[in-house]
Amino acid sequence: MTIGIDKLNFFAPHLYVDLVDLATARGVEPAKYTIGIGQEKMAFPPLTQDTISMGANAALPIVSKEDAELIDLVILGTESGIDYSKAGATVIHQLLGVQPFARAIEIKQACYGATAGLLMAKDYIQSHPGRKALVIASDIARYGLATGGEVTQGAGAVAMLVSDNPKILALEDESVVYTDNIFDFWRPVYSDNALVDGKFSNEAYITFFSTVWEEYKRRTNRCLEDFEALCFHLPYSKMGKKALLPVLENDGATDSVKEKLLTNYEHSILHTKAIGNIYTGSLYLGLCSLLDNQPNLKDNQLIGLFSYGSGAVGEFFTGRLVPGFSDHLQTEAHHNLLNERQALTIPEYEAVFKEKLPQDGSEMKLDTQADPASICIEKITDHQRYYYKK
């Protein structure tokens, strides 16, 4: 029995900031953003979108009524949760009409949470063939105006329907996970913005990838040549390449292997360039980008995936493209979503950035008509968020 990703979709808010405009406003040479870290646009959420609504919007197009009756597990991976106690997955469960006898949980481990959820879902389907699980990665990366991390902000969600006999990617059993207690990136409960040791975080990411890759090779006797592509967690589009290049050299990869993996890496970062950092969803946004933008992928090819969550947990796991996978992608919808977004001027972006939902129990009604998304926050009252499904 094969188990894996049966359906796959992502969502990004309809607003974005052009990073050339942002660089100009901040007195920075634009190439530092567009070439130095490899980012072009930054998705930004209006008040009508949060991790719950974005996750529901990502899942809505791929969860049919028949799927909703078979889903036993709804998992939301996020580090941008809106409640210390109540899982956002319970709201998504309701918005999607999932049958009531299902588990709904939220997982936090920085950018690794959704991967934990995906592999948990795989194990569940292994013992419950014929049933399904919905795994959602949804986050808002926020560092503050005119901060060092501002250019690596972003917002969005990825939804994955997990089943046996999947139509897109069959997950393999062997994986390598590595944990170390470090402070490269964290956000105390009293802080709205994350704290980051940028240099150390980059070094930790590279070290974790090298560590899990070496152990994976030892356990499986596989090598780089076996893979058609490697997908990475992408806090910005250049990060994965920084980890990949030394491994290509250390492993003595041939020129043809280097060309193949680096070419496919470039396909895997196109969506990230247009959206920015979406934390838990970044790896899976990269997978979407590879599948959407590389027309030469073939059935049964092996894809490697590296998940990294600061603090820190890293995991390398693999999947094979299912025969006929290309017939089940959301490529056209993804490109339409990105092309139909609205650019914010820098004054507009800064004004939206400063807007906040009430935190004192007072009521606020929001203009859902200004947001083209199918699911939006409709109002806040008595410390509760109410969502509107158009």
Automatic annotation (TrEMBL):
Residues 177-258, 266-355 form the Hydroxymethylglutaryl-coenzyme A synthase C-terminal domain. Keywords: Acyltransferase, Transferase. Gene3D superfamilies: 3.40.47.10. Pfam families: HMG_CoA_synt_C, HMG_CoA_synt_N. Residues 3-164 form the Hydroxymethylglutaryl-coenzyme A synthase N-terminal domain. GO terms for molecular function: hydroxymethylglutaryl-CoA synthase activity. Its EC number is 2.3.3.10. It comes from the Bacteria. SUPFAM superfamilies: Thiolase-like. Belongs to the thiolase-like superfamily. HMG-CoA synthase family. This is Hydroxymethylglutaryl-CoA synthase.
